[in-house]
Amino acid sequence: MYWISVLFLIAMFVPLSLSLICMPYLTRETVSFGVSVSEAVYHSAPLRRMRRQYVWTSSVAYGVLLIACLLAMLTVPEKQQPSIISGFVVLLIAASAVINLIFYTKMKRYKATLPQETLNPSVVAVDTSFRSGNKLVWSNKWFLIHGAVALISAALALAYYDKIPDTLNMKFNWQGEVTRTAAKSYRTVLGLNLMQLVMIGIFMTTNWSILRSKQQLDPANPQQSVRRNAAFRRRWSMFNVAAGLMMVLLFSFVQYNMIYPLSREVMMLVSLMMPLLIVVLAIVLAFSTGQGGRRIGGPSSGSGATHVVNDDKYWKLGNIYFNPQDPALFVEKRMGIGWTVNFGRPGAWIFLIGILAVIIIAARVAS
Question: TM spans, by residue (predicted)?
Answer without folding.
Answer: 6-26, 54-76, 82-104, 142-161, 194-211, 236-254, 266-287, 348-366
